[in-house]
C-alpha cells in the first residue's frame, strides 16, 4: 500500500461501545434512615464538661470573694494605722503640754504671784521625819 492512498475507500471506525452504567449499591449511596423507638425520650445525662465548667466558675467566684475580703481587711488595717498615728501624735502633744505645765519656772512664777519668795540657801535645813516603825 502506498503511504497515503487518497483514492482508496476509507475504513470507517465503529463507535467505541459505551459500557453499561454500573449499578451502585443503595446502602452505600444514602445512609440508613434512623429507627425511631416508641419509648419515652430519656433526658440526657449531665456531661462531664458542664460539671467542670460549673466547678471552674465556682472556683473563680471563690477567688474573687477571697480577694474582696482581703482588700476590705487591708482597708480596715490602714484605717487603724492612721488612727494609731493620730493617737500617738496626740499623746506626744499632751506629754509636751504636761511637761510645760510642770516646769520649774512656771511653778516659781505661780508662787511669786501668791506672794512666796525663795528661801536663802544659808537658812535651808532639812527635817528628818521619823519612820512609822518603832
Number of helices: 3
**How does the major sheet shape up?**
none
**How far apart lie the N and C ends?**
174 Å
| Number of separate strands | 0
Outline, from the CA principal axes? rod-shaped
Structural class of the helix and strand makeup? mainly alpha
Radius of gyration: 58 Å
List low-confidence stretches: none
Beta-strand share of residues = under 5%
Overall average residue pLDDT: 82
Q: Give the SSE string.
A: HHH
Helix content: 40-55%
Write structural notes for this entry.
It contains three helices and no strands. The chain is rod-shaped. The chain has a domain at 88-116. The chain has helices spanning 26-29, 48-101, 104-113. It has 134 residues and is mostly helical.
Describe the structure using short key phrases:
51% helix; mainly alpha; 134 residues; single chain; rod-shaped
In short:
The protein is mostly helical. It has a domain at 88-116. The chain has helices spanning 26-29, 48-101, 104-113.
Blueprint of the fold:
Blueprint: H1 26-29, H2 48-101, H3 104-113
